[in-house]
Specification:
Radius of gyration: 24 Å
Distance between the termini: 70 Å
Structural class: alpha/beta
Low-confidence stretches: none
Strand order of the largest sheet: 2-5-1-6-7-8
CATH superfamily: P-loop containing nucleotide triphosphate hydrolases
CATH architecture: 3-Layer(aba) Sandwich
Number of domains: 1
Number of strands: 8
CATH class: Alpha Beta
Length: 375
C-alpha cells in the first residue's frame, strides 16, 4: 500500500530548509518512487493547508488572500489517484482543527498515513516567532510581545496564535487521537548538527540523499539582528496599512527584509535577539510543560527530547542608529524591482500586440481569399 507522508510542522523548526531540499530534488525523489507535488507559488503545499483549514494569508482586511476549496480538492484527487508514495509539507497543517484533520484523513483514499513533526526548543522559537511577527507588520517591542504571549491571566490574539502553533505536545496529541500514536514521528532538531534534521527526515520517508542537489553555498538566509528588527518595527509604526498587504510585501518584505536576510551581517552588528532574564521563570515553566508533554505521549521520537528543555537568556541592546550601507541596497533593490516589473509589463504588452497584429493579418488574408473565391 502506498504511503502519504504528511509533514505538518512545526513553525520555526527547520521546515523551510526541508521544503527547499524537497523542492530542489523533486525529480530525484520521483525516480525513487516518492511524489512531492508542485505548487504555484511556494516550495511547500501551503495553499493546500490553508484550503483544508479554510483560512487565508496576509492582512485579511487589507488585501490578504483567502484560500478557496480548489487547492484541497486538487491535492486530494492527486493523493487518491497516485500509485506512488507522496510527501506533503506545510507547517500550517499543524494549525488544523480536529474536524479538519478528520476531513483530511478521510479524503486520502486507501493511502497509509504517516505524520511527521519537527520540533526545537520553544525558548529558541520565541525570538524567531517575534521576528516573523515584525516581518508581518507588528509594531510591538519584544518585551511587550513577550508579555502578551506569556501572560497567563489575559487572552490576546498574539498569545492565542503563538500557543496554537507552539504548544507542541497538545498539537501532537490532537493528531495522535485521530490518526493513532503509531502513525506519528517527532524529529528533534540538533543545532550542533544541522544535518541531523534533514538526514533523519529523509530516512524516515525512505529516500536516499546520495544524488540530491545541494543548495547554493553562496546564498545567505539569516535572521535579522537586533538593529534591523528595531528599524523594521519602527517602519511598521509608520506604514499605512490602507495601502494593502501586497504593497507592504513589495515595498518592505521583498526589498528591505530580503536584502538584509540574504546578506552577511555587518561587523558592527549588535547580534541576534535574546530572551530577557526577567522572563526566565515564565519561559522555563512553558518549556517544561512542552518537553514533559511530548515525552508522555508515547509517539516515536528521533533525537534528544530532553534538549527541548534547554534555555538561555541575555540582554538586548537596542541601538539608536544603523549603518547607511544597510539602507542603500534595499532602496536600490526596490528600484530594480520596479524597473523590472515595468519592463515585464511592457514586454508582455508588446508580445500581446504583436500576436494580435499577426492574427489580424492572418484573418484579413483569409477574408480576402474567401471574397476572391466567391467572385
Amino acid at each position: 500500500m502506498a504511503k502519504l507522508f504528511l509533514h505538518v510542522g512545526f513553525h520555526k523548526t527547520g521546515t523551510t530548509s526541508l521544503q527547499d531540499a524537497l523542492n530542489r530534488n523533486r525529480k530525484e525523489l520521483e525516480s525513487q518512487g516518492i511524489i512531492y507535488p508542485k505548487t504555484r507559488k511556494f516550495r511547500a503545499q501551503h495553499e493546500f493547508a490553508w484550503s483544508v483549514g479554510q483560512r487565508g494569508w496576509g492582512w485579511k482586511q487589507f488585501g490578504g488572500s483567502q484560500a478557496g476549496p480548489g487547492p484541497a480538492r486538487r491535492m486530494f484527487k492527486l493523493i487518491r489517484s497516485s500509485k506512488q508514495n507522496l510527501i506533503v509539507s506545510s507547517e500550517f497543517l499543524s494549525e488544523l482543527s480536529p474536524e479538519h484533520i478528520k476531513k483530511l484523513s478521510s479524503s486520502i483514499g486507501d493511502k497509509e498515513l504517516r505524520v511527521i513533526f519537527t520540533v526545537r526548543p520553544v525558548a529558541k522559537i520565541l525570538p524567531s516567532a517575534y521576528q516573523q511577527e515584525v516581518k508581518n507588520g507588528s509594531k510591538l517591542t519584544y518585551d511587550k510581545w513577550l508579555v502578551r504571549v506569556l501572560d497567563s491571566e489575559k487572552e490576546s490574539r498574539v498569545r492565542t496564535r503563538f500557543w496554537k502553533r507552539h504548544s507542541h505536545h497538545l498539537e501532537i496529541a490532537k493528531w495522535a487521537e485521530i490518526v493513532g500514536v503509531a502513525n506519528i514521528s517527532v524529529i528533534v532538531s540538533d543545532e550542533s548538527r544541522p544535518e541531523f534534521l534533514t538526514d533523519s527526515f529523509f530516512e524516515l520517508i525512505g529516500a536516499s540523499t546520495d544524488s540530491f542537489r545541494e543548495s547554493k553555498k553562496d546564498i545567505v538566509n539569516r535572521s535579522m539582528d537586533v538593529a534591523e528588527m528595531e528599524l523594521l518595527r519602527r517602519i511598521n509604526e509608520k506604514f499605512d496599512r490602507n495601502l494593502g498587504w501586497d504593497e507592504y510585501v513589495a515595498s518592505i518584505r521583498s526589498t528591505i527584509v530580503k536584502t538584509w536576510t540574504q546578506s552577511v551581517p555587518s561587523e558592527n552588528s549588535p547580534g541576534r535577539l535574546a530572551n530577557p532574564e526577567k522572563f526566565k521563570e515564565r519561559i522555563d515553566q512553558r518549556v517544561l510543560e512542552v518537553t514533559e508533554g511530548i515525552k508522555a505521549l508515547g509517539v516515536t521520537v528521533i533525537g534528544d527530547v530532553d534538549s527541548l528543555a534547554k534555555t538561555s537568556y541575555g540582554q538586548n541592546m537596542i541601538p539608536e542608529s544603523i549603518a547607511i550601507d544597510a539602507l542603500v541596497e534595499p532602496i536600490l533593490a526596490r528600484t530594480r524591482e520596479t524597473v523590472l516589473d515595468s519592463f515585464k509589463t511592457t514586454s508582455l504588452l508588446k508580445l500581446v500586440l504583436k500576436r494580435a497584429s499577426k492574427n489580424l493579418k492572418r484573418d484579413f488574408k483569409r477574408l480576402v481569399v474567401k471574397k476572391q473565391r466567391a467572385i
